[in-house]
Amino acid sequence: MCGRLSQYRGIHDFVAALGMPNALVNTLGDDALAQYNVAPTTQVALIHLEGETLHADRVRWGWRPHWSTDHALPINARVEKVAHGSFFRAIWPHRAITPIDNWFEWVYEGGPTKQPYLIRRRDRAPILCAAIGQYPAGGRDPRADDGFVIITADSVGGLVDLHDRRPLVLSPELAREWLNLGMPKERAEQMVLHEAEPAETFEWFKVDSAVGNVRNHHPGLITPIGKVLRGGDEKGNG
C-alpha cells in the first residue's frame, strides 16, 4: 500500500456506513472533510469506541512505540505480524476504523514516471479499513505520541498488478465487530487473517499525475482517466 488516500465525505456519512446506533462524540464537525490527497503523518479522520460511545477524531497517520529508535514513522502494520510481534503489542488491543473513499497506488508502466491509480469500492460505499493505534481520550487534545496504523494484507486478484499489499478492508458487519473491544484477541486475529473484503469488491483506474504532489487537494484528483478495471474482471469496462 503506497500511503495516500482520500476522505472527502462528511464523518456522518462514514458513521452511517458502519450502521452503529451508538452515541457519537464528533470533534470533526459536520461539513464534508474534502480531503482528496491525504498523506502519511498528517491528521486523518478515525473512528474508535470508548465504552459504548463512538468517537470520531483527527489522529496522526503513523505510530511507533516510545522505545523504537527507527527514524521512519510506520503508517501500516502487516497482518502477518501485528497480532504477535513486539512492535505493535501495546496498540494491538486498541482497534479502530479508518473510513476512506479511496486509496492510490503508483505503477511503473514503462514511462518516465509511475502512473497513479485510484482504488475504490465498486458500489462507491465508504471503505472501512481496520486500524490500531493510540487515540485522544475523552475529548482531550491529542498528545505527541497519539497515532494509528492501517493493517495491510497481501493483494489478491487484479489488485496484485497495482501493489503487493492492500489495506485490510472490512464489511460493515465485521467493522462493527472489530470496534467491539470486548471481542477476544483470537477472534480479531482470525478476522484480519481470513475475512477481508475480496478483490471483486473493488475497481480501479488511472488518475492525473497531479495527485503525486501532496499540495494538490481538489476533486479533479479522483477523476478517471481511461478504462475502469474491476476485481474479477480485469479486462475492465467503459
UniProtKB/TrEMBL annotation:
<keyword id="KW-0378">Hydrolase</keyword>
<dbReference type="InterPro" id="IPR003738">
    <property type="entry name" value="SRAP"/>
</dbReference>
<keyword id="KW-0238">DNA-binding</keyword>
<dbReference type="GO" id="GO:0106300">
    <property type="term" value="P:protein-DNA covalent cross-linking repair"/>
</dbReference>
<dbReference type="Pfam" id="PF02586">
    <property type="entry name" value="SRAP"/>
</dbReference>
<dbReference type="GO" id="GO:0006508">
    <property type="term" value="P:proteolysis"/>
</dbReference>
<keyword id="KW-0190">Covalent protein-DNA linkage</keyword>
<dbReference type="InterPro" id="IPR036590">
    <property type="entry name" value="SRAP-like"/>
</dbReference>
<keyword id="KW-0456">Lyase</keyword>
<keyword id="KW-0645">Protease</keyword>
<dbReference type="GO" id="GO:0003697">
    <property type="term" value="F:single-stranded DNA binding"/>
</dbReference>
<dbReference type="GO" id="GO:0008233">
    <property type="term" value="F:peptidase activity"/>
</dbReference>
<comment type="similarity">
    <text>Belongs to the SOS response-associated peptidase family.</text>
</comment>
<protein>
    <recommendedName>
        <fullName>Abasic site processing protein</fullName>
        <ecNumber>3.4.-.-</ecNumber>
    </recommendedName>
</protein>
<keyword id="KW-0227">DNA damage</keyword>
<dbReference type="GO" id="GO:0016829">
    <property type="term" value="F:lyase activity"/>
</dbReference>
